[in-house]
């Protein structure tokens, strides 16, 4: 069994625009993250993934990079980035950067030169066509055509927004420039990368015509540009020339990777340390379809997707377990009926936390998740910033739905739901900023602040601290990090139960895994329903934690119990 620091880590994802504003301009920044490092350390976090803070016109909130070697002024300076990396490392927290190399901003120097001079070497850094007649009419990930015309009459390709032209990975010189840039950041002291949209880098550049699959007459871009044959050559070269040269971590966003390809991605010689599984976090939607067309799913289906991924990954590599991120709405509204939130919000947040946190793999906590934050309500599309949400709204209107129905779609699934300002205290703007924030604060959860949650021993925040303590600093640490996982069958479809089996290994990563260990198994039980359900635990069991004061033999609505036998 390979022992790695990132397997024993607890990751925390930060959306820098919304985390903490240190200079009072309404926008979170790098100094704000540095200032809050003590909070993260106290929580128990050992690694932080920060969404892009590179120089950017912010058409897609930093996922449209105009300069990989500079920091966007709203976030600070390169010196601020250096200070953050240094201070984090001094506090035992590693920094992981969000790396976007499928595309750049249309304001990037390379693209500007490519548009200015069709004979420039940078023309080959992107995908240009003089004529798109007969080529696939593809729908971008944000809606609309993937082809945009420039002044000289030619067309360029973009899998996402028109302001995000795709890089041409067939160009060796371009690839080498990316490798040099990534190594520059690694040399600065970052500990790895989260790789954005990485399975889009290989395209069928002939773009053969494809049948429509949507109301707009277009075909989903993934049919032509997602996990294409030949991508392994690019990914192998990427690893060999950058993060493969040291003890770095990579976690990749890899939509389109089938189960049979997992070994190539996260096996012993795989391209990445971990990849994110979308099967259970996207269980409520149909890929490429309108958000309004919500899928009907069952707890049994959810459980099957969760444990199928666990069974597959344990054979070949390591899992990256998560409930929320910057592209997902808050998990409580997704996995539980919205009407139950006021009464059971705290129990729901703790139940979901325990369900994902003790799975085998590395847990990723998204900012505000540890407070049990829920979705807000947007009244009109002008309140939103997210380019994807605006694209969905437009698609709904184009498909004949009313504005009210289109807004219902956006409220269900908008990425802005998770991008609202972090709630630090009860001051104006929840203590996020003294200035009006770039995105309005949540209007649905006044009581969910770090200040209030810290003072309440039964809060969601303190529950997360207890989970981190149990996983990383207890006699059960070896079991909860490296022990095998078995799903346990129950008579009730509304209950999810799994067992973490003990294992004896020698760990050297300083998490507490070297401490005295136990030969007892740990069971995690979660009632996913709003009903009382009978469930008996052995008389010899010790309850390690739960989301009610005590356990009396009946699982109450949304109750979770973690016990050892």
**Helix- and strand-based class?**
alpha/beta
Question: What oligomeric state do these chains adopt?
Answer: single chain
CA-CA gap between termini: 24 Å
What's the number of helices? 17
What spatial form do the alpha-carbon principal axes imply?
Answer: globular
Total beta strand runs? 22
Described by strand count, sense and barrel closure, the largest sheet is: 8 strands, parallel
Low-confidence region ranges? none
- Please estimate the helix content: 25-40%
* Gyration radius over CA: 23 Å
- Strand numbers in spatial order across the main sheet: 13-12-10-5-2-1-15-14
Strand content: 5-15%
What is the average per-residue confidence, as pLDDT, rounded to a whole number? 94
Features:
565 residues, alpha/beta, eight-stranded parallel β-sheet, five-stranded antiparallel β-sheet, 17 helices, 29% helix, globular, GH, O16G_dom_2, Glyco_hydro_b, Alpha-glucosidase
Report what the structure shows:
The chain contains 17 helices and 22 strands. The chain is an alpha/beta fold and 565 residues long. The longest helix has 18 residues. The two termini are 24 Å apart. The mean pLDDT is 94. This is Alpha-glucosidase. Belongs to the glycosyl hydrolase 13 family. Pfam families: Alpha-amylase. It comes from Coprococcus aceti.
